[in-house]
Give the backbone structure.
Amino acid sequence: MNLCRFKDQQDQARIGLVVNDSTLLDLTPAGVRQMQPLLENDDPVAQLEEMALQGLPRLGLDQVRLCAPLERQEVWAAGVTYLRSKTARMGESEFGATAYDRVYAAERPELFFKSLPEKVVAAGEPVGIRRDARWSVPEPELALVLNSRGTIVGYTIGNDMSARDIEGESLLYLPQAKVYERSCALGPSIRLGVSESAARAWTIGLSIRRQGQVVFTGQTSVGQIKRGFDELAGFLFRSQSFPNGAVLLTGTGIVPPDAFTLQAQDLVEIEVSGIGRLCNPVTVV
Ligand code: DO4
Ligand code: MG
């Protein structure tokens, strides 16, 4: 069951339930105006299944504009959770290599702040590459949707856009490599009611198109993530509360070759087998 946010003709955000590739159910007549109360519910799937029986209006997905599937949640990200990410970072940074090696094996994961909700880019909107970076890549990641109790209520697709030259120059530049205009995309919807073990069987695919030609493709499996989802969420909620819940990206396992950098007008397409597809064009910011 996939939950989405969309804008109606009056530009008002509404909540919907994705029925199939082309149709959604508008949950507004069932009294749903925000996602948060649903995500706080102990069993959102049961609640939504009941609503879906109420003869709600059907809309074509091509008639609405999807918004990023979050409201007031901060977005955080985990890093160096896949072996591929560890080896790539060790290669990009001369003096930071041991830090990446250590954090991969350490008890405490790397977690960093990624985005305020209002800065997150939705499916179809441009993601940014910094104008002062030479080496920019998308990071396709499974994102955990957590309620205020730190419980995983769903999953969405995240793109942790990164400037690898800035990140590689100094570990202290990580916030500038990771947090800038249009550096985080989420969407298209939240998949609810899936256990961690089922999500671990999903695949993540990345394809990058330039002028219609595929210039990079890669694939990984969510099962390659070294850490448990509750472990990551548990560290995020240590000594910190999130009254609006939080979204936590779980790290990348797909890294394009070192010679590859994104360019303006490239098209980034991320597919997570259990969720759907997040596509964004690239712009310079
Ligand atoms: O420490 C650098 C960031 C790592 C990251 O974003 C990832 O592994 O996905
Ligand atoms: Mg990342």
